[in-house]
Specification:
The structure holds two protein chains of two kinds.
Chain A lengths: L1 H13 L2 H19 L5 H8 L8 H26 L8 H12 L3 H35 L3 H17 L5 H15 L2 E2 L6 E2 L13 H19 L17 H22 L7 H14 L12 H16 L1 H7 L5 H12 L6 H6 L1 H22 L3 H7 L4 H20 L2 H19 L5 H24 L5 H4 L1 H19 L12
Antiparallel strand pairs in A: 1-2
Chain B lengths: L1 H15 L12 E5 L6 H17 L3 E5 L6 H8 L7 E7 L1 H7 L12 E17 L7 H10 L5 E4 L5 H12 L6 E4 L3 H9 L5 E5 H9 L3 E7 L24 E9 L4 H16 L1 H9 L4 E5 H24 L4
Parallel strand pairs in B: 1-2, 1-3, 5-6, 5-7
Antiparallel strand pairs in B: 3-9, 4-7, 4-8, 4-9, 4-10
Helix pairs in contact in B: 2-9, 2-10, 6-11
The chains are: A mainly alpha, B alpha/beta.
Chain lengths: 497, 323
């Protein structure tokens, strides 16, 4: 009852003309990011954070969330029309989507992807509404030791599931934690590793770092790729035929379930749910030989799973303050910049804000359906933009954005340096996700560790005498141990985080 | 780099205009807040700025330069030209302890500021969970004497006024030792107290008034010489027999050192008028912030006294076995 009331208040706030237009702008920008190859959701969200600075927190978060799921949605269009995923989670959509387009059924492929994403997104948001408040209440009883252990679980999952072997992932996570140490000691107040540079007193800014690691690095990588031909396909008939519907509906249902449950586990990333949904459909299909030849289930299932995942992944963020993927970590950074630390306390402290953002997910999914069904031709035309102009334009936008964070040229330098570093890391195939997660979780891990020790008077047994804390630490250790034994198959690797 | 630009811009401004007091202000005045937007210093600053700018004849732009417990903003302020176009909030005793703590390596001292006018005085308060076994300050002190260094007491950060307040309480009640837990602010204190991870919190009246009214927490004492009008039922430490436990956080406006007297006078006049404005008074009171205007010698003396007091407790804090 309480939840329903909060939700309605949230809906009212999210449906105000102003917030509605922020959601719409966010969806349009997000889809744009998805459509432009080379810019993934993490990069796009990072680049666009400065745009939201002048907005009030609710408007800013609504717009950023809309950019996030808009980008998750928009990647489909390029997968279907040029066989290049606009973002990593749309890789699977290429298999059957591009085949459908070659057969002149491109419109149907995009149509079912939009419908599936809509169903998956709405269902996951409804589940979030039910699951999140009780989870946040439980998490509210967590003290600093439990949070410390929980962060370790999150970091272990992300490191263990990053797709590469454990050692490089672990090294990157530790590197992220080390960079997070730069700045004023959060407890003692003394500057650390600042080398007398006042700009470093507040640490290495998270936003310029992710703008560089994702945004600039992705642009540099895209410049190397050859230009791809846009396929001519029929975009006039978007709705599937009756027999196609029958095949797609089940796939949408199963995709929703798979996406939602995998979204609850931090570290899974956005690609795995789409693969699992695709493989599952193929296995239970009576005509598995049609997969890869333009089977509609092969588009419906992963696209649904993708969007269900995107919305479900907000649950660990909002209730526990644990980002599940680099994109969510960027979103978390944006929350923090707006003065709100995601976590259980947010539900108690700013219910107005949390519920307005959750309600905006519903609105956003409707907006995306509208943007994607009738206007899909318009988005497709964007693919004809010469990429050299897009690259230069995006780089310019990055520089202006980084400067506008706090009118500091230093931040622009950090962004460019991180862009070059990110490019290099991709070239040598080192995972960026654990680095980013280490960087954003570092201050929280440090703070909860040190507060725990203040509580216990310096006695480490506090971590082993509280049952919940001990349980979480065991899980973290088990996750790391398990990932040493098992390597995911190479096609699951996130080449594009 | 940015500072070079700013310096260059200011140099151009100084060369082209006559930067004397007669034509002050000849451009918008920046009012720096050394804490993020939305905090209580920021809320107060925005209310004052919106009223004072009408009388000043130039916009007053609130600039948030948060970070490092205020150190980033104050470092920025002391580097500005003292022509009155860049002024900012100093938060006593936080500004003092940043100067006094050798680990902070602050580039400024108390002599680098020109105090203009004090704005808000927010007294310290000791509070517990509504159903806590500690009903009075005496219960707390007895417990802290009986089992020293076990009662977990939360500050809002190391060397914050709340940290100093705990030391004052220990000084006034010899034998009582609290176990210090430095949390990040009022919200973190509230969460940990409600979850039972902390036994008692030291904070300021402005932060907890709504929660006392809602019955979630119980305020045990206010650390001021008179009761707070926002918490009229809560006794002061003075009433409870601990007159030396006097702690508060003040927010006032200052500029870099070396400001012309005429500019200071003009700012003081305009700001005082804004602070006396009924609109300002009602807006601040709705936030639970107590206005305390201090100017001239009174404010300068207050700054010096706070500095001396902060020095004593900062030295103690640095030498206490458990920091």
């Amino acid at each position: 009852m309480d939840t329903l009331q909060h939700l309605l208040t949230g809906l009212a706030a999210a449906a105000s003309l102003q917030n509605l237009s922020f959601a719409l702008i966010g969806c349009i920008l997000g889809t744009l990011i998805g459509v432009l190859p080379g810019l993934g959701p993490a990069a796009g969200t990072a680049i666009l954070i400065p745009l939201t600075f002048t907005l009030d927190p609710i408007g800013a978060l609504i717009m950023l969330s809309a950019i996030y799921y808009g980008a998750m949605y928009g990647g489909t269009i390029t997968s279907v029309l040029i066989n290049v995923p606009g973002e990593a989670a749309s890789v699977v959509t290429c298999f059957d989507g591009y085949q459908m387009a070659k057969q002149g059924r491109g419109g149907t492929a995009l149509g079912i992807a939009a419908i599936g994403s809509f169903v998956g997104g709405i269902a996951a948001t409804l589940a979030l509404i039910v699951v999140a408040p009780p989870l946040a209440r439980v998490a509210l009883s967590f003290g600093p030791p439990e949070f410390f252990a929980l962060m370790l679980v999150g970091l272990a999952l992300i490191t263990g599931l990053s797709g590469q072997s454990l050692l490089p992932a672990l090294v990157m996570a530790v590197l992220g934690l080390l960079v997070a140490l730069v700045g004023i000691d959060p407890v003692r107040g003394a500057p650390r590793f600042t080398f007398g540079v006042p700009s470093l007193y507040d640490g290495v800014g998270f936003i310029p770092v992710v703008m560089g690691l994702f945004g600039v690095a992705e642009i540099l990588l895209t410049i190397e790729k050859p230009y791809r031909q846009v396929i001519k396909t029929n975009l006039s008939s978007l709705l599937p035929s009756r027999p196609e519907w029958r095949r797609a509906l089940g796939a949408i249902g199963r995709g929703t379930g798979i996406g939602f449950f995998l979204g609850l586990i931090p570290g899974v990333g956005s690609i795995i749910p789409t693969f699992v949904a695709y493989v599952f459909e193929k296995r239970i299909s009576k005509t598995p030989e049609q997969f890869g030849q333009g089977a509609i289930e092969g588009v419906a299932a992963p696209e649904t799973a993708n969007n269900a995942y995107a919305n479900a992944a907000m649950i660990p963020l909002l209730t526990l303050g644990i980002p599940s993927s680099p994109t969510i970590a960027v979103l978390m950074g944006a929350f923090i910049i707006n003065g709100l630390t995601p976590g259980p306390f947010l539900f108690k402290e700013r219910p107005d804000l949390v519920w307005a953002v959750i309600a905006s997910f519903m609105i956003g999914n409707v907006l995306l359906l509208v943007l994607n069904l009738p206007f899909v031709g318009l988005w497709a035309r964007l693919l004809h933009l010469p990429y050299q102009y897009v690259c230069v334009g995006t780089l310019l936008f990055c520089v202006i954005g980084a400067y506008s964070l706090q009118q500091s040229v230093f931040d622009v330098g950090v962004m460019i340096a991180c862009g070059i570093i990110g490019y290099g890391l991709r070239k040598v195939d080192l995972p960026i996700a654990p680095l980013v997660l280490g960087l954003i979780l570092g201050p929280f891990i440090e703070k909860s560790l040190r507060t725990s020790l203040e509580m216990s008077g310096g006695d480490f047994s506090i971590f082993f005498t509280r049952p919940l804390c001990l349980g979480l630490l065991v899980i973290a250790a088990a996750v790391l141990a398990a990932s040493m034994l098992r390597l995911p198959p190479p096609q699951l690797r996130e080449s594009n985080p | 780099m940015y500072r070079i630009f700013t310096a260059a811009a200011l140099a151009v401004a100084a060369a082209t205009g006559n930067a004397g007091a007669q034509d002050f202000p000849n451009k918008p005045v920046q009012l720096m807040v050394a804490f993020p937007a939305g905090g209580s210093t920021d809320i107060g600053a925005r209310i004052v700025a919106s009223i004072a700018e009408k009388a000043l004849g130039q916009p007053i732009v609130v600039v948030n330069k948060g970070g490092a417990g205020g150190q980033v903003g104050w470092t920025e302020m002391v580097r500005q030209r003292p022509d009155g176009h860049y002024i900012g909030y100093i938060n006593l005793p936080a500004t003092n302890t940043v100067i006094l703590d050798p680990d902070r390596k602050a580039i400024f001292t108390e002599k680098d500021f020109t105090p203009i006018i004090n704005h808000v005085l927010d007294p310290g308060v000791i509070w517990v969970k509504a159903d806590s076994q500690y009903k009075t300050v005496q219960d707390l002190i007895d417990a802290a004497k009986k089992a020293p260094n076990t009662l977990r007491a939360a500050t809002t950060g190391i060397l914050s006024d709340d940290h100093l307040a705990i030391l004052m309480t220990e000084e006034a009640a010899p034998g009582a030792v609290f176990r210090l837990v430095h949390l990040e602010g009022g919200a973190a204190q509230f969460k940990e107290l409600m979850a039972g991870n902390i036994d008692v919190a030291f904070d300021n009246v402005g932060s907890i008034v709504p929660r006392v009214r809602s019955g979630e927490v119980r305020a045990l004492a206010v650390m001021d010489d008179a009761r707070s009008k926002f918490l009229p039922d809560v006794p002061t430490m003075k009433e409870l027999g601990y007159p030396t436990v006097m702690s508060n956080s003040t927010r006032g406006i200052a500029g870099p050192k070396g400001m012309p007297a005429a500019v200071v006078g003009k700012l003081r006049e305009v700001l005082k008028k804004a602070m006396d404005d009924p609109e300002h008074v009602s807006k601040l009171e709705s936030q639970g912030l107590a206005i305390k205007v201090m100017i001239g010698d009174e404010y300068e003396k207050y700054f010096a006294d706070t500095h001396a007091k902060a020095k004593k407790y900062t030295d103690w804090a640095k030498n206490r076995p458990q920091k």
